[in-house]
Amino acid sequence: MTPRTSDRPQMLVEEFEELARHAPESARLEFLHGKIGVKPMPDGNHGSIVVWLLKRCMQLRPDLELYPEQGLKVEAYRKGRARPDASLVPEGYFVGKGEWSEPDGVLMVVEVTSHDRDADQRDRIEKPEGFAASGIPVYLLVDRDLDSVTVHADPEGGVYRSVTTRAFGSVIELPDPVGITLDTEKLKDFAD
């Protein structure tokens, strides 16, 4: 078995944070499993999905905020750095937190796949592992390659014990502490 990159990271977390701080705005860097990754810049449909989710969350849970692109300390011992497409948090949670926040108050993270070759590894494997290890209760993956939404919930021991996938157009439950039911019919408009 080949050791994971996190066993021999490309650099220290502090070195990554310094690099990310000086990266151009067009480069959205993440540090998962000990290696640097670059998130692709979102296209119009990607952004429209995030806005659609933002509106749904505001309507159904006005006590919460769906905050785009906030950096989170993830993985075991908070040695990873991820910048999910959105994080659902209590109102005001990120005030004063800085570029990389502890995930303890995050109720849900959202990723919308981009059409790139790294999406499978990054969004379907590495991020669920990192978010589960951090104890984030819900991970919502809007998968534009498979025209589906997947809800990962009930993190324990670094994995989500509950994974539910539904096709665009279905109704899907975002379990507590989110407590939202999403009708995903509108996502068919953003399939490409």
How is this structure best summarized?
It contains three helices and 13 strands; from the N terminus they run αββαββββββαβββββ. The protein is of the alpha+beta class. The longest helix is centred in the first third of the chain and has 17 residues.
What distinguishing features does this structure have?
six-stranded mixed beta sheet; 3 helices; globular; three-stranded mixed beta sheet; 192 residues
Describe the structure.
By secondary structure, the chain is an alpha+beta fold. The chain has one domain: tt1808, chain A, CATH 3.90.1570.10. It contains three helices and 13 strands; from the N terminus they run αββαββββββαβββββ. The chain has a six-stranded mixed beta sheet with strand order 3-6-8-9-10-11. A three-stranded mixed beta sheet has the order 5-4-7. The chain has a two-stranded antiparallel ribbon with strand order 1-2. β10 and β11 (159-167) form a beta hairpin.
